[in-house]
Amino acid sequence: MNGRGRRAAIWIGAMAAIAAVTAAGSAAGLNPSTVGFAYLIAILLISVWGGLAVGTVASVVATLSYNFFFFPPLYTLTLADPANWFALAAFLVSSVTVSRLVVAARRQAETAEQRRKELETLYGLSIDLFAATNRVGALGEAAGRALQLLGARGGGLVLFDESPYRQRVVSWRGDKPEEIEDLIAGVGRHKEPLEFPSPLGRDVYLPLIVGGKPTGALVARGTEASMHALESASRLVALAVERQRFIEESAHMQALRESEALKTSLLRAISHDLTTPITTINIRMESLRRRAAGDDDLRETVGAIAEETERLRRRIDNLLSMARLEAGKAKPRPEPAPPADLFRAVRENLPLVFAARPVSVHVDDDCPDVNADPSLALEILVNLVENAHRVSPPGAPIELVARRHPLDGDKVRLEVLDRGPGLPAGVADAEGNVAPEMSDVGQRGLGLEIARSLAAANGGSIGLAPRKGGGTVARIDLPAALLPVGERV
Fold first, then answer.
1. Residue 478 and residue 462: Cα distance in Å, rounded?
2. More confidently predicted of 348 and 231
3. Is residue 42 situated within a structural domain?
4. Would the CA dihedral through 386, 391, 395, 401 be positive or negative?
């Protein structure tokens, strides 16, 4: 039976109930008081069954029937005794009041039942969201069940990827017209819920906000749930989204920590396993060097082995230093270091390089000291000079230059210039600079990556640029050790 037929049946049944009470009272010869109570009981049942409108009309019809059939003169709508006017008026007021009270109590009961269901739904949603496993799709399934229990005929959960216009649908049920994306973006942009009437109820768009930032939207289409329940559900979902993001970030950080610990352990193991053989090689080379006193070819071979062995030892030490810095177990200790002293230390640490080719040094008169850890700054320069020596032709010069940074007066620029093969074509920017990660690291060597990490630890950076006339310029930009204002000349 459709809605119109049901309403007609209610009206017919209500009138039939009044007629039945009237007929029974007349046939049994009941007194007016008894019939009045029977009418009140009938009106009470009609109001519970049909609602306020049906109960009110039934009250009026019962009053007219009460007057017509039970108050003298009978079968007229007039009253002979004035006291009956008060009785009839009291009956009408009582019947209408009973109808309204019954309907109000019924509505309160329905509202209370709806609130109970909403609370059960929200409780179940909280359990689903916060006690469920972290498997893929659990969040969307929980949001979909919550919308279904709240009476929504469609809708779902949509999250934002950095912007309300970059939407990711986690779960959706029913149709999704194109205009819904614009509505969801508007909700995320203005952080306010939207509500529209629909043929099946209401369409409600609720923003998911955590810490003042919109993270997504919960859409309930064709729902009759209260706005309070929907907003509570959206807050629960927003907290669950934030919880899931926190769990993912924690897992990522834990993986990074484990990766760093593993890397440090591996580097320590490598250092331990390689240090002993290198020490043994150095001892054997000293013995070979004594034996090669009269053999030029053998002496040259031993020198080359010694040079490569020293470079290997330095690489191992650099890797360990880099691992300790990245793990936070060691921190740079910056102090003023004159560039000339750093270049002198490079010469002392690379005697074979300086003996094999000409190396010129130039420090501008106005160049300030470098404010960096001297040992780390030295390793940066040593690695870059070794790279330049390795890629440059025999006898080609290397230049070491120190000057104030041309664009930033709070930095010092150290340069290592070689005449090697240069950079691959097309990797430099408009100013001729190229980042280390853009260059051919395999060709340039591990030293460049080590130098980059050590420079970053000191608050600096490294860049490469093609050198006019052929070759490469390796630029190290480090903080300058500036004097206080009162001490400057």
1. 9
2. 348
3. yes
4. negative
Q: Where are the beta strands (DSSP E) in 22-153?
A: none
Residues 239 and 276 occupy one common structural domain: no
87, 92, 94, 99 alpha-carbon torsion, rounded to 10°: 160
Residue 245 clears pLDDT 60, i.e. is over it? yes
Provide the token pair at 210: 């955590």
Residue 225: closest CA among 243, 204, 210, 211: 204
| 156 found inside a domain | yes
SS3 112: helix
Burial 451-460 (b: 16+ CB within 10 A, else e): bbbbbebbeb
Is the distance from CB of 357 to CB of 396 less than 8 angstroms? yes
Checking if the pLDDT of 249 tops 60, the result is yes
Closest CA to 414 of 383, 450, 457, 392: 383
Q: For all residues of the chain together, what is the average pLDDT?
A: 78
Task: Give the contacts of 273 (CB within 8 A, at least 6 positions apart).
Answer: none
The mean pLDDT value for 165-177 works out to 86
- DSSP string over 388-430: HHHHSPTT--EEEEEEE-SS-TTEEEEEEE--SS-PPTT-S-T
Distance, CA of 367 to CA of 404 (rounded, Å):
5
In a domain, 453, yes or no: yes
pLDDT band per the 50, 70, 90 thresholds, residue 437? very low
pTM, rounded to two decimals: 0.46
Based on the domain organization, do 339 and 462 belong to the same domain? yes
Instruction: Report the chain's C-alpha Rg in angstroms.
Output: 45
Decide: residue 396, CB within 10 A, 0-12 exposed, 13-18 middle, 19+ buried. Answer: middle
Residue 233 in tokens? 């559900």
Structural domain span for residue 313: 252-324
Residue 428 confidence (pLDDT) above 60: no
With bands split at pLDDT 50, 70 and 90, how would you rate the model's confidence at 480? very high
Do 205 and 149 share a structural domain?
A: yes
